[in-house]
Amino acid sequence: MRAPPWWYDPRGGWPARLLAPLGALYAGATARRLARGVPHRSSGPVICVGNLDAGGSGKTPTTMALAMRLSGRGVAVHVVSRGHGGRLAGPVRVGPGHGAGEVGDEPLLLSAFAPVWVAKDRAAGVRAAEAAGAGAVLLDDGFQNPGVAKDLSLVVVDAARGWGNGRPIPAGPLREGVAAGLSRADAVLAIGDAAAQDDFVRRWGPALSGLPLLRGELRPLPTGMPWAGLRAVAFAGIGQPERFFATLRGLGAELVATRAFDDHQPLGPALAQRLLADAARLGAQLVTTEKDAARLPPALRARVLTLPVRLELEDWGPIDAALDRLGLQAQGSDRSP
């Protein structure tokens, strides 16, 4: 499902007001589930990368960046993910023989940075990571999941969209109220350019109530690809396809057509062939995101260019200090099996 535009309209509108009672019920159900949970306490630190709203906010690039930061400290970091879009219940460690249909696209991406466990039952996934020698666990999403005790919770938000109209689903984009969610958070990471960051602070700064605010931006990796002037058909099935299209235009690519799909939408052979036919008809190159490339049929991946992006933080100091407090100082080589 694509988010309705009034979810992100600060003025709300009549649909938001009409659905407000259902939103209150949704937020109440989240609060009750959290209150009744009996969380598993891991033997090592658990760092949760989550959000308050539904949809893409940059959690996966944040998890990648944290995995690299921890690995650089010599920490045997493992990732536990629900594996959205995959059919395996787990816990199962993601391996080279898995496809997105089995474990989901995000775990496939993350497995290049750290061992990844897919588990619908997050506590079972954490226990599997512990048994395999994890010195720390990154919980990809799961901020509203009561099954695992968190030692550090980072709430990620798209700076341009913020928390929309501030209402819970279905009246707005939130999984829970802002105040309720931030009361369990240790820091907020807003991702976006300088203008979006300033807008976020103006609107949502008071709601942070002194909670540390980190600033980051997703930037393309230098791949040597001459994007300027490239005729391209760009497609994306992520939370915000337009952000990907804007990044390509910013690199100078000429987008002769764009195709926006639902987040995690399967990209089977028939759809892939239609995209290839569109590109051939327009005399253009197909371009997509890393996450979408993971869902393409293997035989077609070589015919599609991928634009990788990585998270760059304005200041790693607060994160590094939090990792130090958790005892995750540099400790030699990675113990991952």
From TrEMBL:
EC number(s) given by UniProt: 2.7.1.130
Record keyword Lipid biosynthesis present: yes
Stored SUPFAM superfamilies: P-loop containing nucleoside triphosphate hydrolases
Enzyme class name: transferase
InterPro entries: LpxK, P-loop_NTPase
Example of a GO MF term: lipid-A 4'-kinase activity
Binding positions (ATP): 53-60
Pfam family, one: LpxK
Reaction equations catalysed: a lipid A disaccharide + ATP = a lipid IVA + ADP + H(+)
Keywords: ATP-binding, Kinase, Lipid A biosynthesis, Lipid biosynthesis, Lipid metabolism, Nucleotide-binding, Transferase
Pathway(s) this gene product operates in, as recorded in its UniProt entry: Glycolipid biosynthesis; lipid IV(A) biosynthesis; lipid IV(A) from (3R)-3-hydroxytetradecanoyl-[acyl-carrier-protein] and UDP-N-acetyl-alpha-D-glucosamine: step 6/6
Family the entry assigns: Belongs to the LpxK family.
HAMAP family (alphabetical): LpxK (MF_00409)
Function (record text): Transfers the gamma-phosphate of ATP to the 4'-position of a tetraacyldisaccharide 1-phosphate intermediate (termed DS-1-P) to form tetraacyldisaccharide 1,4'-bis-phosphate (lipid IVA).
The protein's name: Tetraacyldisaccharide 4'-kinase
UniProt source species: Rubellimicrobium aerolatum
